[in-house]
Amino acid sequence: MVCALICSCGQDNPNLLKVNVNKALKKQVSEQDLYSGANVIPLHSPGETNLGQEGHVVMDVAADRFFLLNKDKNEILVFDWNGSFVTSVKCEETIIDFSVYQDLLLDVLTQKAIFEYAIDDGTLSETYAIQDNDVTLKCVARVDDDSIDMLGFLNGDAYDCGYMIGKNRFYSVARPAPDYLVSHRYTSALEVQNSRFFRCDDSVYSFQSHSGEINGYTKDDFLWPAYVFDFGGSALSVTNVQKTTDRIYLSFELNGEYHVLIYDVAKKKYMVARKTKEGTAFPLGVIYADSNYYCCPSSHLNHYLSSEQAGDVNGLVMIRYSL
User: Fold this and answer.
1) 140 with 97: CB under 8 angstroms?
2) In whole angstroms, what is the distance from residue 285 CA to residue 130 CA?
3) Calpha distance 139→14 (Å, rounded)
4) Torsions phi, psi for 93 (to 5 deg)
5) DSSP-derived secondary structure letter, 142
6) Which residues contact 79 (CB under 8 A, 6 or more apart)?
């Protein structure tokens, strides 16, 4: 069964979240509004590491594991939560994306296959070949034991793709455009240019790069618009979305500057952080177990933490923010 998309983006949508970005930016946010504490974990990398552009690092977090893509060497570096190097996952094909499933499996996406590795020791357990595919794949996440979902694009259109493990079958389907875009049949490929999957409370979500729409995935192979944003006409470029039980964290670029929207779904209240009252930025990485993990060079710590919080470390680090 292929995924079915239910489009509902009108004003009567109960999942519509209205955000006045310009108004929110006039209110300063303090570090205490964003997190209860922060600590720095030095990562003891085995050699030189190129993670790509900061803020766009391909990473994921599992129980006692950090996973980071070293783009130059086309390998995934694995560290424990103390920052000690555990192993590396290497692939002959170019690694596009990867995703942790239930703290047990690491699914690694290439254009021609999905490789499944064990979390504990990094051994290869399964290979799922992707055949008869013209879609350029972007990201991957396993929804359940039998379904691996992907996003991609082809001929200017966004595509929802998947692999049915039990049927040993890959599929792809162009994503229908929202009902308010009457002149478009399918969603633009630009909406998946920054897309990645993320998890919260055993649920899987993805986001669109410009509308900010958040789609949820069910275990019976359906997806639906879980949250739809109305930014009041502000032209945003969404770069990352994460979620806790009650809050949505959405990072975006506006007029060349980086911001993070924090939306309390239960209270219908929100704030936008550019720089805190203390003069630090709040970077959004991967949220796992109510902590936000962000990887950066130690030389950049002064952008995100006070000197007392940063300490005296060198090399690659992981910042853990307790939310």
Assistant:
1) yes
2) 29
3) 28
4) -90, 160
5) E
6) 43, 44, 65, 66, 68, 85, 86, 318
Q: Are 88 and 75 in contact (CB under 8 A)?
A: yes
Rounded CA separation 167/190 (Å)? 31
Distance CA 53, CA 94 (A): 18
Measure the CA–CA gap between 147 and 167, rounded to whole angstroms.
10
How many Cβ atoms are within 10 Å of 176's Cβ, its own excluded? 18
Report d(CA 215, CA 225) in Å as an integer. 4
Output 280-283 pairs: Cβ under 8 A, ≥24 positions apart.
Answer: 280/31, 280/304, 280/305, 280/306, 282/29, 282/31, 282/34, 282/35, 282/321, 283/55, 283/251, 283/258, 283/319
- Please give the structure tokens belonging to residue 185: 């049949």
Asked if 257 and 22 touch (Cβ cutoff 8 Å), the reply is: no
- Local structure of residue 27 (DSSP, 8 states): S
Query: What distance in Å separates the CA atoms of residue 203 and residue 221, rounded to the nearest whole number?
Result: 13
pLDDT tens digit at each of 323 positions of the chain = 445 454 544 445 667 899 999 899 899 999 999 999 999 999 998 877 778 777 678 999 999 999 999 988 999 999 999 999 999 999 889 999 999 999 999 999 999 999 999 998 889 999 999 999 999 999 999 999 999 999 999 999 999 999 999 999 999 999 988 765 556 789 999 999 999 999 998 899 999 998 889 999 987 778 889 999 999 877 889 999 999 999 999 999 998 899 999 999 999 999 999 999 999 999 999 999 999 999 999 999 999 998 777 777 888 999 999 99
